[in-house]
């Protein structure tokens, strides 16, 4: 069989060589070998970049390369960041989740990558509030602009846990607020003016507790009054009943009369 005929010794050797190259590539670049089918993975200067933008993704891919340094998930339809969503990415430094439909961020969403992350983009989403625990120990500069934020104590506490990107900090605005006069104003501007939403929250809570306690007190007083009046009415009826009974002297006279007759 000639060397140029398929299945000959040369083609067999070439196939073995090709398989060897594939195995070698997998061993040298294991991260790239598991790139999600909806993403494009590339290595540039030892940095693995995973490009998943504009793929109509509804959730964060689970089979991401373990050596990913930059993960680009912008312009998708992701609605939630679950807990430990990036736990298998210890080298992750840049994370872009902008222009999605994110409404919910779990408390442990960035657990495992919070200390290594340098840039986090959550702008242009649908977030109204986030738990402060989500940004615990986060060292990244965070973009939160163009979200319908509800300015109240929970958001204030969350912002205290992170570093806002200075270029977009002024674009983080109160879509609504616990106090209506701050709606439409930049969050940083409101907080810098000395407003403390947590104090307002505590005062509101205190008022609610006072109203609740007053309601319970009024119910107790009403019950006591009802109980006393009900007992007074029973006592009055009982007294009238006793008054209606014949006296003991009258009973004695009636007995004497009966004896005389007999």
Strand-helix topology:
Elements (H helix, E strand, L loop, with lengths): L8 H20 L11 E5 L2 E5 L16 E5 L7 E2 L12 E3 L7 E2 L13 E3 L19 E3 L5 E3 L1 H7 L3 E2 L9 E4 L9 H6 L4 H48 L3 H14 L1
Parallel strand pairs: 2-3, 3-5, 4-6, 5-7, 7-8, 8-10, 9-11
Antiparallel strand pairs: 1-2
Give an account of the 3D structure:
The structure is a single chain. With 262 residues, the chain is of the alpha/beta class. It is 36% helix and 14% strand. It is built from five helices and eleven strands, in the order H-E-E-E-E-E-E-E-E-E-H-E-E-H-H-H. The protein has helices at 9-28, 153-159, 187-192, 197-244, 248-261, and strands spanning 40-44, 47-51, 68-72, 80-81, 94-96, 104-105, 119-121, 141-143, 149-151, 163-164, 174-177. The strands form three sheets. A seven-stranded mixed sheet has the order 1-2-3-5-7-8-10, with no helix packed on it. The longest helix has 48 residues, at 197-244. The chain is elongated and about 130 Å long. The N and C termini lie far apart (152 Å). Residues 1-6, 9-32 and 201-208 have low confidence and may be disordered.
Features of this protein?
262 residues; seven-stranded mixed sheet; 5 helices; 11 strands; single chain
């Amino acid at each position: 069989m000639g060397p140029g005929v398929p299945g000959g010794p040369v083609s067999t050797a070439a196939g073995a060589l090709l398989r060897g190259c594939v195995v070698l590539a997998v061993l040298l670049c294991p991260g790239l070998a598991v790139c999600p089918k909806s993403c494009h993975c590339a290595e540039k200067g030892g940095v693995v970049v995973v490009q998943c933008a504009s793929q109509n993704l509804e959730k964060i891919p689970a089979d991401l390369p373990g050596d990913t340094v930059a993960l680009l998930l912008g312009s998708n339809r992701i609605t939630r960041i679950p807990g430990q969503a990036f736990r298998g990415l210890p080298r992750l430094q840049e994370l872009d989740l902008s222009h999605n439909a994110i409404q919910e961020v779990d408390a442990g969403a960035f657990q495992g990558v919070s200390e290594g992350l340098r840039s986090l983009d959550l702008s242009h989403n649908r977030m109204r509030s986030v738990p402060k625990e989500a940004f615990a120990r986060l060292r990244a500069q965070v973009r939160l602009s163009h979200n319908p934020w509800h300015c109240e104590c929970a958001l204030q506490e969350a912002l205290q846990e992170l570093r806002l990107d200075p270029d977009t900090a002024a674009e983080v605005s109160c879509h609504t607020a616990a106090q209506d006069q701050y709606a439409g104003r930049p969050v940083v501007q409101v907080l810098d003016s000395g407003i403390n939403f947590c104090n307002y929250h505590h005062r509101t809570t205190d008022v609610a507790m006072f109203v609740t306690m007053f309601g319970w007190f009024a119910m107790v007083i009403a019950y006591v009054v009802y109980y006393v009046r009900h007992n007074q009415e029973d006592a009055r009826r009982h007294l009238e009943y006793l008054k209606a009974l014949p006296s003991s002297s009258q009973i004695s006279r009636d007995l004497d009369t009966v004896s005389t007759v007999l």
